[in-house]
Design brief:
Helix content is 15%, strand content 45%. The protein is mostly beta strands and 182 residues long. The chain has one domain. The protein has an eight-stranded antiparallel β-barrel.
Length: 182
């Protein structure tokens, strides 16, 4: 069967609709197992989903929560973002929370929600993205979800006044999901 440009034009609206529906179904499926408080508005679609392996660095510090007492506090984080469906790779670091894709696009964001993801695990996170710099996969991203798969929880070693200032690296694995408006 010979396909002509006229033939394609007559089917183009249906093909576009099918593509939009597929993206909507994929976005809905991506949200199915996410707690409601972590979900992004329905008018967004997944732009990039990247598996990540990283390290959370905790520091034993005096905190003002429940009076002045020592506690493990996140001092920083780094991660390598692996190739997801887009084939893109990248990095993550904080502070400040910064994502950098291998195509040169970069963005920062501000945490909106932190959700308990289980014992000895880093919390899941929903971030409101700032406008990106550079052009690429992160251009136009509005939200970022961190869905923790393993690790990243506070160290098991006691944090005491005597250990104040000590740092402890803890490995974690997560998926970072970047969302853009439909």
């Amino acid at each position: 069967m010979k396909i002509t440009s006229m033939h394609l034009r007559s089917h183009l609206p249906g093909l576009l609709l099918a593509g939009c529906l597929a993206a909507t179904v994929a976005s809905a499926a991506a949200q199915d197992k996410i707690p409601q408080i972590m979900q992004v508005p329905a008018d967004n679609a997944v732009a990039w989903q990247a598996p990540a392996e990283g390290v959370i660095t905790y520091e034993c510090r005096m905190t003002q929560t429940d009076g002045a007492r020592p506690a493990w506090v996140i001092a920083g984080a780094t991660a390598t973002l692996g190739a997801g469906q887009s084939g893109q790779t990248g990095t993550y670091k904080s502070p400040p929370e910064t994502w950098r894709a291998s195509d040169g696009s970069t963005l920062t964001g501000m945490e909106m929600v932190r959700a308990y993801s289980g014992p000895d695990r880093l919390h899941d996170q929903l971030v409101l993205a700032n406008p990106s710099s550079g052009v690429g996969v992160l251009t136009g991203v509005t939200y970022i979800q961190r869905i923790v798969k393993a690790g990243g929880g506070a160290p098991q070693a006691p944090c005491t006044a005597a250990s104040k200032g000590e740092r402890e690296p803890v490995k974690y694995q997560a998926d970072y999901v970047f969302w853009k408006p439909n």
